[in-house]
Every structure is written in C-alpha cells, then in structure tokens.
C-alpha cells in the first residue's frame, strides 16, 4: 500500500531513503475546508496506487486561511510541500490533485516551486504587463522541476480557473444579472482578498488581476512554464448542478466551446461523461491592454453598471488564451441522474462518503489515470 499522511505527521525512518515512496501526490482542498475533505479519496488512492506513492493531504490553508488570498495561500502550500520533500529523501516525482479553490492555490504554488531547465526554458515576461515577450514560444512542456522533483500529473476538480466573474460562472446566482453584479463588490466582505481575486478586481487599475498574471509568465512567477513541466494536465468539470463553480471556468473553455454533454457514462466510471485531449493553441499569450486597464477601472469603481460586462469578456478571453498555450485533458462530469445532484461540487471529490458518494466513479477515474501515467513513466524504453 502507499504511504498516506496529513498535515505534518510524516514519520521519517531509514527506509524513506532506500525503500521509501518515490512519487509525492499532494492533495489540496478548497475554500473553508481542511484535509479531512480527502478522507475517502485518500483511502481509495492509497488502496490503488501502490507503495511508490506518498499521498499527502495538505493542511497549511485550512478554513479561514483560504480567505487570505490565492497568492498567500499558494506560498504557504509551497512551503509545506518543500518540508515534505526535505523529510522524505526517496522522492523523485511529484503530482497534485486539487479541488475547487485549491486548484488555484496549487497553480500558484507550483510556480513558487518551479526551477527551470535553463537549456529549454523561455524568456521571462514583461514585468509591468505580465505578458510573454516571445510570441513564437508555444511549447512550454519541456524541462524544469517542481520542488526539485520530476512533475507528472496536475489535476483539478471543479476549479474556477477563469475566476467567478461573468455570466453563470457562479451558478448559485442562477445567471441573474443583478445578483452577478452585486456579488463582486461584496465578495471581499465574506471571503477577503481571495474573493477580490476571484472576481478579478484586485490591485491597481493599471495592473493585471492576479488570475490573469497566473495565465502567463511574469515577474510574479513563471506560471505557464511551471504548469508546462507536468507531463499530464487534467481538469475535471461539472457540466451542471455545481452551485459554486461553472462548467466554463472549471474546464477552461469559451461559452461557444461547451456544446451539449454526452448523456452516457464512460464504462466503469459512473457520472464521467466525456474525456477529451485539447492540444496547445499557439498564441502570444495573455495581454493586458490599455482597453483592459480602462475596463478594470470601470469595474472597480462602478461594479453595478453594464460596462463591467466588457471587462469580464476581455479577462476571460485573455486567461483562456494564456492557459490554452498548454495541452489539457478535459474530463466532463454530469451528476444529473444522481440522488443528490445539487451536491455536485462536493460529489466530484466525495467530500463526505455518506452524502457525496455519487462521485466514487470520478475518484476511480482519477485513480486509474494516476496509475496508468505512473506505469507509462516506469515502463522500460527500448
């Protein structure tokens, strides 16, 4: 069986060096949650992945700590991962599995933990606008380490990669325009700096919001290059009934790219309805133009006006352009036929085995994907 730990409870013995686990799998919970969110998933992964895996449920951003900002939480997560790596000398590879907001914490953390392969790394982006300098750089999927280890899988479950601003990005508002406009200015009152960042209104008007910067390589971090070091990047997205995170933002797609989800489940994986690999899309990356600056200022100062729609549209398109420079496996999940479909956001990672067990097929799919990728990596080459 694999080794499973939570928080700082790693036991260090001589076997860690010679016969210990080689692959660190970091589990990252979402907003107002803790490592106990992963109780079912951790047990299943421990059962199926084998002794080469150290499964670690992070605990550095529990509950109200998730309100302090994606960047601050990402730095805490990075520090926590480094402590695990330092204590476990046998480790060679690293993967991340994150739920909801935890996916953004993980994206920030891997940029902090990233060390480039200087023979293949790209140039650092413009320090003011956080855009990429070389428009011909489209292959980021080479070279580099994360926490000194070989990056293998980066997996998110119902993560708001494009934030929660815009039509139907925060489904519990039911697409009601006035509610979507009111949500942005009051978000910080309930979830602090994290809320401001999720609604893309953080920082000065002339500076890109954090989530846009995280769709590029810039002075804050080489976010795209860090993601590009992983052999496999996978996003699981609820196509409906997720009251927290919309299909578009969790699957990194434009509205026109959604379509109608299949109705049939994949064989052996209940509620998983589609798996598709989306190849990298060459572009000059995300941009923050003078038009975007003006739109951001309007959104910050007049959050209730129709003019904020332009800002949402600009930011979403630029984030997609940045993130689609990498290839992604996109897995669509549909809990429409589940007994409690409105728990989709928690079903997808089986937060509570009794209430959210509709998601066991999703976790089985995750486990098999991790096992297959490990087998591929360890297979002898001829």
Automatic annotation (TrEMBL):
<feature type="domain" description="DUF676">
    <location>
        <begin position="21"/>
        <end position="249"/>
    </location>
</feature>
<dbReference type="Pfam" id="PF05057">
    <property type="entry name" value="DUF676"/>
</dbReference>
<dbReference type="InterPro" id="IPR029058">
    <property type="entry name" value="AB_hydrolase_fold"/>
</dbReference>
<dbReference type="InterPro" id="IPR044294">
    <property type="entry name" value="Lipase-like"/>
</dbReference>
<protein>
    <submittedName>
        <fullName>Lipid droplet phospholipase 1 isoform X3</fullName>
    </submittedName>
</protein>
<dbReference type="InterPro" id="IPR007751">
    <property type="entry name" value="DUF676_lipase-like"/>
</dbReference>
């Amino acid at each position: 069986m694999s080794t499973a730990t939570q928080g700082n409870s790693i036991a260090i013995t001589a076997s860690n060096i010679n016969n210990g686990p080689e692959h660190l799998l970091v589990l990252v919970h979402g907003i107002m949650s803790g490592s106990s969110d992963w109780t079912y998933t951790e047990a299943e992964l421990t059962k199926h992945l084998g002794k080469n895996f150290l499964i670690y449920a992070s605990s550095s951003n529990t509950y109200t700590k998730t309100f302090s900002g994606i960047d601050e939480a990402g730095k805490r997560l990075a520090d926590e991962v480094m402590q695990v790596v330092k204590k476990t000398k046998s480790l060679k590879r690293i993967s991340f599995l994150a739920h909801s907001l935890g996916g953004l914490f993980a994206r920030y953390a891997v940029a902090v933990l990233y060390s480039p392969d200087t023979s293949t790394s790209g140039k650092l982006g413009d320090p003011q606008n956080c855009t990429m300098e070389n428009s011909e750089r489209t292959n980021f999927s080479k070279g580099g380490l994360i926490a000194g280890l070989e990056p293998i899988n980066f997996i998110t479950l119902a993560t708001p990669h494009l934030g929660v601003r815009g039509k139907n990005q925060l489904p519990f508002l039911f697409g009601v325009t006035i509610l979507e406009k009111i949500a942005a200015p009051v978000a910080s009152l309930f979830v602090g700096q994290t809320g401001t960042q999720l609604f893309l209104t953080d920082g000065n008007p002339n500076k890109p919001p954090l989530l846009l910067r995280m769709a590029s390589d810039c002075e804050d971090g080489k976010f795209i290059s860090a993601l590009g070091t992983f052999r496999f990047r996978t996003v699981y997205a609820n196509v409906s009934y997720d009251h927290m995170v919309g299909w578009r933002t969790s699957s990194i797609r434009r509205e026109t790219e959604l379509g109608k989800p299949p109705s049939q489940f994949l064989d052996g994986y209940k509620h998983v309805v589609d798996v598709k690999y989306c190849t990298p899309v060459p572009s000059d990356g995300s941009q923050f133009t003078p038009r975007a600056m003006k739109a951001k200022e309007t959104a910050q100062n007049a959050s209730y006006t129709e003019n904020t729609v332009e800002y949402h549209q600009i930011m979403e398109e630029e984030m997609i352009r940045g993130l689609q420079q990498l290839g992604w496996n996109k897995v669509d999940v549909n809990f429409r036929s589940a007994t409690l479909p409105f728990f989709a956001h928690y079903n997808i990672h089986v937060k509570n085995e009794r209430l959210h067990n509709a998601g066991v097929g999703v976790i089985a799919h995750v486990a098999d994907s991790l096992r297959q990728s490990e087998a591929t990596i360890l297979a002898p080459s001829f």
